[in-house]
């Protein structure tokens, strides 16, 4: 394999890493935010009637014009928020998003070092090929969707 061919492959793999990261990082951020917001809202919605007591729930029932006590609506909303938070946490964990993002970022950086080393003549093709193959193996789990 020639120097130019290897540099080309490295660039292609870096593009794949960038594409994966451009999808995975925002997804990770959305799931983390959903976990935080959902958990916080669930706590606030259950705390309001606990702290405000019956006077608060009677007042809220009247303000919202509900036919049933407002604590039921608050508890239902808290349940939905808690479920959203739980699902988001499980998606983060089961899909190993954090681990994949970290590995993709590391691989992207290694590929950049390889590309610079090759183009500046600091690495020979054989050494760079060995390191490139390690990166390819490490990133084999990445799906671009």
Give the helix/strand class: mainly alpha
Biggest sheet record: none
Number of helices: 4
C-alpha Rg, in Å? 25 Å
Distance between the termini: 30 Å
What is the tally of beta strands? Answer: 0
SSE ordering: HHHH
Quote the beta fraction.
under 5%
Percent of residues in helices comes to: over 70%
Mean pLDDT: 93
Low-confidence stretches: none
Question: Can you describe this structure?
Answer:
The mean pLDDT is 93. The chain has helices spanning 3-64, 70-94, 97-119, 125-138. Helices cover 86% and strands 0% of the residues. Helix 1 packs antiparallel against helix 3 (97-119), helix 1 runs parallel beside helix 4 (125-138) and helix 3 (97-119) packs antiparallel against helix 4. By secondary structure, it is mostly helical. The longest helix has 62 residues, at 3-64. It has four helices and no strands.
Helices, strands, pairings?
Elements: H1 3-64, H2 70-94, H3 97-119, H4 125-138
Helix pairs in contact: 1-2, 1-3, 1-4, 3-4
Quick summary:
By secondary structure, this protein is mainly alpha-helical.
List keywords for this structure.
0% strand; 145 residues; mainly alpha
